[in-house]
Design goal:
By secondary structure, the protein is α/β, with parallel strands linked by helices. Helix 2 (31-42) packs parallel to helix 5 (124-135). Flavin-adenine dinucleotide binds next to helix 2 and helix 10.
């Protein structure tokens, strides 16, 4: 690896070639997944969306968009395009089979309350196609067709996704996942979440026809009608292209019988007798489920839409409530990502609110519609008719009924509680270890060395994302000694305390051999985490250790180092545990490989391959060690003290599993050289060569002016 590789590494960090940690993954490009994807992308998040099929599903299913959903789609910027391929249905009717209208709901009653006082009749795939057109142009969106999610695993603040058939880049990592993969959701199943509820004895038959029913039933036939009848109940509705009728089918009939041309014609003729046969353009028969997942959140996976709940289609609420889920899920995730809301709180609140909406609003209403439409008790039917006509006369009740069926009530409950409760629990401050883990998941991390507060500030000012504290530089700066095992835990902890106080970057600490045996290593983890270490590294040299680039090193037995790694993993709160092996220069590559595998097996998060390795060796090492977050489990040293130019080019090394690289001693070398030259100049010329400008620059690094200003404000009694 050469110095000229570094810009390439920084580019890789921002745009890694594979195994990047996505912010949010979505399974399913149905209406729910697509709404979630567009909303997240518009909020600036990185989104990856998986769809099992080779394109969008064109299945004829949902065709009614309620006003509450139209309001959300307006915010997404898709409502106009949807109107262009939709029909406004301001009226819906409850009718007797005879044709008599029991009650008529005129949604213009909601004028003033919503810009959309009507149902919009449009196929659900119109919405998914419009959204796809937008997502395709967004740089922060990755769309993957032919990519069925097979299973997911919950990680610590992330999700691992496996696709059917296995892919090169698996597991795919994301901080969050929204499962929108339909009622059979493999995501839900792989998380072991129960899908509780019932399947109706009835199946439903849906038939679409080119016939214009208004010619027979009159121009006042609404675009949506619910037909009440003990046996031949059903729904008649208009989509932009066709009329669609829905009938119940008993379990006495097979699907073949139901779908036969004679049977379908007979059903249509019973609904509306006419002299000529119906031209049927689409038919489907399906089982009807009323089910809900036992929870809508598992770790950072949220279930939405049919993956979370399904209900009978009477009232047209399945997709609409799914769109509401998608909205709420994105609100929660966005609040965690951008406003410091606690992730567990957000996921729990989402689950509670949307499960309540699905069970107590949507399913309850859909079940009531089903019971009312097929009521066979004469007295009960008469009472229902009375209630409907009473509602017709009561404007207040009618408006309330319309708010409910437009799904405003359930959506407003969700949004209201999110507004009040979502921000109530803030996430605890993020530890250095969590920050470092997250960075490792996002791409290669390149750290420069620091040995005191000023050099740490300079690492941050230069734009590095992490600080590395090498034992060698601390040994030199604190004791004036070479890297031969002079410094102990006390000196290192003090240096780290000063450094972590001076920078917000994660600080990764070279903990030498652990300063003794297993017990001392445990104490080192405790002390170094106390002073803010984000990562702690131990090596397998025999104490007193010597610089990794020197000859004559000796190693402890593998078992002793394994024990140190295990105790470090057990003791740490969140720090990343790094196991360094110096075996390449002592036992050769085979020894290094065996040790690396053993240390990874013991729980090390990263394996530090000290010494010079070829690309093939790095690849073999990567394959021998457990996959950590981000899939790059190796750390290498680019130190000027060794021959790092012999390492493979950076991009290849990265693909071979290198995720953490350090330039540990550049700072101490630069400081020594600069100080030496300046002092020579002083001695020979009487002047250092530095002046006021240099001092100004230096004090700016220390934020001197900012602090003086603050002191003045405080003295003047300002906050
Ligand atoms: C006849 C009928 C009429 C209906 N009418 C209405 C209505 O008018 N209004 C209404 O609100 N609701 C209605 N519904 C319900 C509505 O269709 C569903 O609630 C809605 O489709 C749910 O959307 P979804 O995105 O959650 O799931 P889906 O639409 O089922 O989409 C899931 C997507 O995930 C994909 N997928 C599946 N498995 C995987 C996997 N492993 N990995 C990746 N992708 C996967 C699928 O291919 C699909 O594209 C109706 C349903 C039926 C059957």
């Amino acid at each position: 690896m050469t110095e000229t590789d570094i810009p390439a590494l920084l580019a890789l960090r921002d745009n890694p070639p594979f195994e990047k940690m996505h912010t949010v993954a979505i399974s399913g490009m149905g209406p729910v997944g697509m709404v979630a994807a567009l909303r997240l992308a518009q909020l600036g998040h990185d989104v990856i969306v998986f769809e099992a099929l080779g394109g969008l599903s064109a299945e004829a299913r949902a065709s009614t968009f309620h006003p509450s959903s139209l309001e959300l789609l307006e915010q997404l910027g898709v409502v106009e395009e949807l109107h262009a391929v939709g029909l406004k249905a301001p009226i819906y009717q409850y009718r007797e089979r005879s044709g008599a209208v029991l009650s008529q709901m005129d949604m213009t009653l909601l004028e003033g309350e919503t810009a959309y006082p009507y149902r919009l009749q449009s196929e659900q795939n119109n919405l998914t196609e419009i959204i796809l057109g937008k997502l395709q142009d967004m740089p922060n969106v990755t769309l993957r067709f032919n990519s069925p999610v097979a299973r997911v695993e919950r990680g610590d603040r992330h999700v691992r996704i496996h696709l059917e058939g296995g892919h090169r880049d698996e597991p795919i990592l994301a901080q969050w996942m929204i499962a929108c993969d339909g009622a059979a959701s493999p995501t839900r199943k792989s998380l072991g979440i129960a899908f509780e509820g019932t399947t109706y004895d009835d199946r439903f038959l849906v038939i679409s026809t080119t016939h214009e029913f208004r010619e027979d039933l009159g121009e006042d036939l609404a675009y949506v009608s619910y037909i009440y009848d003990p046996t031949e109940w059903g729904v008649l509705l208009r989509t932009p292209n066709h009329w669609r009728a829905l009938f119940p089918v008993t379990d006495a009939e097979t699907d073949e019988e139901v779908m036969s041309a004679e049977n379908m014609e007979a059903r249509m003729q019973r609904l509306n007798p006419k002299d000529t046969p119906y031209e049927i353009v689409h038919r489907n028969v399906y089982a009807v489920n009323m089910r809900s997942a036992s929870t809508y959140a598992s770790g950072q996976v949220l279930l939405a839409g049919d993956a979370a709940h399904c209900n009978n289609p009477l009232g047209g609420m399945g997709m609409n409530s799914g769109i509401h889920d998608a909205w709420a899920a994105v609100e929660c995730i966005n609040a965690v990502l951008t406003e410091g809301v606690d992730a567990t709180h957000a996921a729990t609140l989402y689950s509670e609110l949307r499960r309540d909406a699905a069970i107590n609003h949507v399913q309850a209403r859909a079940q009531k519609n089903y019971d009312n439409m097929r009521q066979d008790d004469d007295a009960a039917r008469a009472e229902q008719a009375d209630q409907l006509s009473a509602m017709d006369r009561d404007l207040f009740e009618k408006r309330e009924h319309q708010r409910n069926s437009a799904m405003f009530t359930s959506l407003r409950l969700t949004l209201g509680r999110l507004k009040r409760e979502l921000h109530a629990v803030k996430a605890p401050a993020v530890s250095g270890g969590q920050k470092f883990s997250k960075l490792l998941g996002q791409g290669p991390v390149y750290a420069a060395g620091a040995y005191d507060a000023v050099s740490a500030k300079l690492v941050e000012q230069a734009g590095f994302k992490a600080v590395y504290v090498p034992g060698s530089a601390v040994s030199a700066s604190v004791m004036g000694q070479p890297d031969l095992g002079y410094i102990g835990l006390a000196e290192m902890a003090e240096a780290v305390r000063r450094i972590t106080a001076a920078t917000d970057l994660p600080v990764i600490v070279d903990g030498d051999t652990g300063y003794g045996g297993v017990l001392q290593a445990a104490e080192a983890v405790r002390r170094l985490e106390q002073v803010g270490a984000a990562g702690i590294q131990f090596e397998d040299q025999l104490a007193p250790k010597r610089c990794g680039h020197l000859a004559g090193k000796a190693l402890v037995e593998t078992e002793e180092m394994v024990a140190k790694v295990k105790i470090a993993v057990a003791e740490r709160t969140s720090a990343v545990i790094i196991a360094r092996t110096d075996a390449k220069g002592v036992e050769g590559f085979e020894g290094a490989l065996a040790r690396a595998a053993a240390y990874a097996e013991a729980g090390a998060d990263l394996v530090f391959a000290e010494g010079v390795y070829s690309l093939e060796e790095l690849t073999a090492l990567r394959d021998a060690v457990r996959t950590v977050v981000g899939g790059r489990p190796l750390m290498v040293n680019l130190s000027e003290a060794g021959d790092s130019s012999a390492l493979p080019p950076l991009e290849l090394a990265h693909e071979a599993g290198v995720g953490f690289l350090i330039h540990p001693v550049s700072a101490v070398l630069a400081a020594a050289e600069g100080i030496a030259a300046t002092y020579q100049r002083l001695l020979t010329t009487g002047a250092s060569g530095k002046g006021q400008e240099d001092w100004k620059q230096f004090t700016t690094l220390l934020r001197q002016d900012e602090q003086l200003e603050r002191a003045s404000r405080l003295a003047a009694g300002e906050a």
